[in-house]
């Protein structure tokens, strides 16, 4: 049960949950936070001390940007010692990116940061937003022996709580919009909220919150497909100023063995650009060397990204490059588990 005195701060960034339909164009646009909470009288019945901050101009999450993540982290930092937990209302489209980024930017958390939103605006009678928001608040407030039960960045959506940096948005229509393909749910909400205590992140005791607000987005993405041309591959790998490439490969990390392809990758790595191999599969992991079609990648220094999601891979790279890491140190930290994002075998 939620502790009676728990304090929760809601940060409203935008997203469908707080949108209304423009009567002229029919488009969904964000509206202000007071109108949103006015739609949920149930919030007044909570034995939780609720406060809120809203972005001056709420956004559709397709306009999310690393600068906004920094703004969010600063809001959390300012309020960190004043509340027991945070709920971030956010559009579902890029929610997994934001949750992944925050998990690297806010380390050693001892309280929950729960992102939620909805597929239907809160003003619509069949909205999924009310349940999502009410349960997210309850999770953010829940303590056991004066300690927050959840101590990490997570996403609550349609009765499930997930580790944020393990999630992907996989359905644009269903209420059940998120999946955590390589990590179990942290909790399930039914009559009770059942926490999966084995799966919850256990921060090292005694460590205090560390905040990182430098992110570097000099990253290119090379998504392979049968028949990808040399010209396209070169134009991506030779992009001026890039420090890292995420290569989305087939199956367990496999790629074409054509000589020109391996040569282009090798030249890129020799220029000091890190190449991180993640799989196009939704579930499972990259194991370089399992097939002949990935052995060469390993030999030339492509880094295996294990079971990282794309969202976790890109934000982990932004964070590590933002720390100024290069070469061996960057390679080492990419392969380490920092915030529960990676299964290290
Ligand atoms: N386009 C919306 C957004 O991500 C979708 C949503 O909120 O679910 O902001």
Describe this protein's structure.
The protein has 345 residues and is an alpha/beta fold. The chain is built from nine helices and 20 strands. The strands form six sheets. It has an eight-stranded mixed sheet, sandwiched between helices. The chain has a four-stranded parallel sheet with strand order 17-18-19-20, with helices on both faces. Helix 3 (95-105) runs parallel beside helix 8 (310-322) and helix 5 (230-237) runs parallel beside helix 6. The radius of gyration is 21 Å and the shape is globular. The structure holds aspartic acid. Aspartic acid binds at residues 14-16, 60-62, 91-93, 117, 119.
Summarize the model shown.
The chain has 345 residues and is α/β, with parallel strands linked by helices.
């Amino acid at each position: 049960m939620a502790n009676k005195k728990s304090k929760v701060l809601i940060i409203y960034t935008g997203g469908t949950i707080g949108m209304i339909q423009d009567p002229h164009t029919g488009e969904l646009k964000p509206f202000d936070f007071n109108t949103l909470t006015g739609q949920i009288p149930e919030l007044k019945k909570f034995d939780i001390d609720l406060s809120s901050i809203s972005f001056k101009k709420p956004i559709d999450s397709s306009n999310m940007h690393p600068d906004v993540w920094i703004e969010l982290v600063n809001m959390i930092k300012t309020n960190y010692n004043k509340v027991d937990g945070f709920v971030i209302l956010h559009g579902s489209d890029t929610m997994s990116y934001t949750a992944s980024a925050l998990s690297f930017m806010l380390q050693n958390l001892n309280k929950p940061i729960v992102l939620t939103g909805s597929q239907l605006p809160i003003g619509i009678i069949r909205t999924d937003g009310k349940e999502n928001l009410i349960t997210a608040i309850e999770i953010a407030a829940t303590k056991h022996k004066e300690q927050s039960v959840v101590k990490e960045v997570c996403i609550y959506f349609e009765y499930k709580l997930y580790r944020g940096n393990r999630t992907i948005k996989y359905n644009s229509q269903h209420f059940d919009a998120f999946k955590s393909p390589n990590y179990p749910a942290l909790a399930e909400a039914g009559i009770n909220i059942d926490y999966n205590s084995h799966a919850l992140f256990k921060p090292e005791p005694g460590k205090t919150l560390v905040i990182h607000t430098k992110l570097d987005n000099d990253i290119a993405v090379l998504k392979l497909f049968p028949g990808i041309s040399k010209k396209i591959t070169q134009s991506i790998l030779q992009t001026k100023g890039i420090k890292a490439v995420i290569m989305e490969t087939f199956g367990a990390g496999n790629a074409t063995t054509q000589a020109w392809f391996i040569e282009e990758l090798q030249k890129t790595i020799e220029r000091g650009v890190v190449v991180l191999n993640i799989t196009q599969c939704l579930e499972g992991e990259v194991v370089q060397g399992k097939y002949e079609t990935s052995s060469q990648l390993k030999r030339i220094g492509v880094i295996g990204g294990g079971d990282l999601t794309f969202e976790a891979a890109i934000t982990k790279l932004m964070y590590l490059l933002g720390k100024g890491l290069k070469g061996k140190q960057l390679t080492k930290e990419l392969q380490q588990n920092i915030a529960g994002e990676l299964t290290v075998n």
